[in-house]
Design goal:
The chain has 159 residues and is an alpha/beta fold. Helix content is 50%, strand content 20%. About 4% of the residues have low confidence.
Length: 159
């Protein structure tokens, strides 16, 4: 039984699939759900941002993160669960590091997150926070494929 479930979300359809699965598990086990959104301030190269107000960009990222958390909180509440949520800001490093740190400090008993299921060059080029979380997590991790990823995988298997 998992009493504390950490659910990293980024607002993508794939992370919504992970959230839906986490809600199912939490409802069946009476678990606490903590929603996590990571704002990475290093996504912008400050040295080449002439004319760009980086404070405005960071504020926009924070605001977007708060909206993503609010939407996810509403979905969890609609299922009859009172969620916790946290917005973590990082400067550099992959989101996986913040997810793993949150899992350890809270402490979570399970991480449920969506994965794009990228393979080959797409995975190499884009990286995989989900893969890094699986490798370094101190707790079990449930990866949930997004709908498009699952459909693409099914069509590959049928071919």
């Amino acid at each position: 039984m998992y009493d504390k479930i950490l659910v990293p979300i980024d607002g993508s359809p794939t992370s919504q699939c992970g959230l839906k699965e986490a809600i199912k598990i939490a409802k069946s086990q009476g678990s606490i759900v903590r929603l996590l959104h990571v704002v990475n301030e290093f996504m912008f190269d400050y040295t080449y941002s002439s004319g760009m107000n980086t404070t405005t960009v960071i504020d926009a990222l924070r605001d977007a993160g708060k909206r993503i958390l609010a939407d996810a909180e509403a979905a969890v509440r609609q299922a009859g669960i009172e969620p916790e949520s946290v917005l973590v800001e990082t400067i550099g490093g992959p989101a996986a590091e913040a997810i793993i740190a949150q899992a350890g400090s809270w402490p979570a008993e399970l991480i449920v997150m969506g994965t794009h299921g990228r393979r080959g060059l797409a995975r190499v080029a884009m990286g995989s926070d989900a893969e890094e979380v699986v490798r370094a997590s101190p707790v079990p991790v449930l990866l949930v494929r997004g709908q498009l990823s699952a459909q693409a995988h099914a069509s590959r298997a049928a071919a």
